[in-house]
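INFO worker-7 received task bundle
INFO bundle size: 2
INFO processing item 0
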Amino acid sequence: MKYFIITILIVYVYGALCLKYISGAKSFAFGLAYTIYDYNDGNPEEKLENLFGFDPYYLGIVIFAFFSIYFSFGNIENGKTLQVVTMILRFLVTGLMCIGSVIDLHKFGGERLPVFDWSTQLKYLAKVFGNTTFVFIYHHSISGIVYPVRPQKEVKGMLMWSNILGSIFLGTEAILAYFAFSGQTKVCVAKEGDSSAEIGFPCQISELYNENFLNLNGIG
């Protein structure tokens, strides 16, 4: 049993690190490009790379590595403020994603794939692994875990309700995304070298889920 649990933890940490570093760095480069340059003006990501002289994705990796190492030292209880801010931001962004999906359904109607379309869905197994890992790390937003809880008898209730609310929230986001985007064939952003791609909104679920909301006010 001990080795079984250790194996699960190894797989979990591997998935969490891959997800956080890779998607974090991609989001950093992507967001920076579309903040500096206009969405409809050529290829913002290519322009940003020319501006830096190198792929800003690697700068994102360095930044995330720095903060990961920085926050790994010291007394973890001092991280309560960081945890609270992170919790608020995660609920805010997830809420905006849910609202964005509802707006999309209202404006354009639902567009979903069959639930058990294995020939299509097997190609996205790696993304399912990454997103599943992400679902399991939402408990990092429960700020009380890194701070003494008094009275201690409240700990079980706190953990139970945190997990229930987190599961409902993330489950709602996933279901709304499925109905709004899973059957879309357009891409949100043209990929390098793919000039034939049909670009528009609403669009299919992208590698970075936040790309689906580029044309929505606020979160876009």
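INFO item 0 finished
INFO processing item 1
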Amino acid sequence: MPIELERVDSRRRDLMVSAAACSVVAAVTGGASVATGNEATAARLKPTDRRTLGKLEVSSIGLGCMQMAGPVYGVAVERKEMIALARGAVDLGVTFFDTAEAYGPFTSESILGEALQGVRDQVVIGTKFGFSIDPVTGARQPGLNSQPDHIKQAVDGMLKRLRTDRIDLLYQHRVDPGVPIEDVAGAVRDLVRAGKVLHFGLSEAGVRTIRRAHAIQPLSAVQSEYSLFWQAPENELMPTLEELGIGFVPFSPLGAGFLTGNVDQNTKFEQNDFRNFVPRFTPEARKANFALVEVIKSVATAKAATPAQIALAWVLSQKPWIVPIPGTSKLRHVQSNVGAARVTFTAAELRDLDTAAAAVKIEGDRLPKSALDMTGIDAPPKK
């Protein structure tokens, strides 16, 4: 495309997005003056802010605990601060905590175990197995390992680190292409019968694998990335979960921080920030994708909320069996995030927001290729 025509096309796209955003604001405000302050936020989740994943009841917004293990976003953390974060989240009404043996390894589980031991019966802990990690030393080996014996060894270590006698929700972190899902589900079924695990889940699994696992040991939840930034689960995954009565736990509901409005094309990431390796976070992609943030900011202004609250409220509005797990290392972000439970949309407002978001063409893959290759795959057949 000639340079001048490319510029015209870019301006036309920007005008379309801007017009769509304006229509959202008009629909939300009804032409009235925009509210000020932060009236949409609440100090904490209410006891009624609960949802069910299968038959497992949790707070409507959970806490992703990957960042407790270290500088995922280039920010160093201290153990005592992360313990305070988890305890503070409980005080804010959060009952659902999502971790994994791979976070550290073992670090996040250990922190949660110490932080939640005094309120263990008031919270729900989900954790994950599946990477090739020595159950004793935590040494990482290449690839995945969902062999049944390894799963059972991993769970014994999880119970010790979490200082508990049961895991509320045990996920397979990634589908192991070398192990039939029937064997995985069978191992988890044994753990359920032993009382060590209460509920079963999968993460980033293909829908055929979900069906096969569910037939052996009923699934309570499936994880995948999902947000206004990444809506592909709507095509095949979410209809499958609705059909089977399985809950959905979206990770990265804030698009790895992008939808908060605090990241733009000029943001410089720390050297150890994983977003340096994500295609949709190149400066060029961020410049194009920021049009979506502008849409969200417009709605946030109209709703007297933050962009993060609008992004989370959108996820919550999609289905009653969806529970997002935004991750953070800052308690103030948890407080802001739980305020999303107070943000509501009319059907017309949602349609306008969806229309405005759809006008933005998202640039760049959501993960590096090596990580994408581990998502949405199916386990080998049972011989």
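INFO item 1 finished
INFO post-check item 1: The two ends are 53 Å apart (CA to CA).
INFO post-check item 1: The chain is about 40% helix and 15% strand.
INFO worker-7 idle
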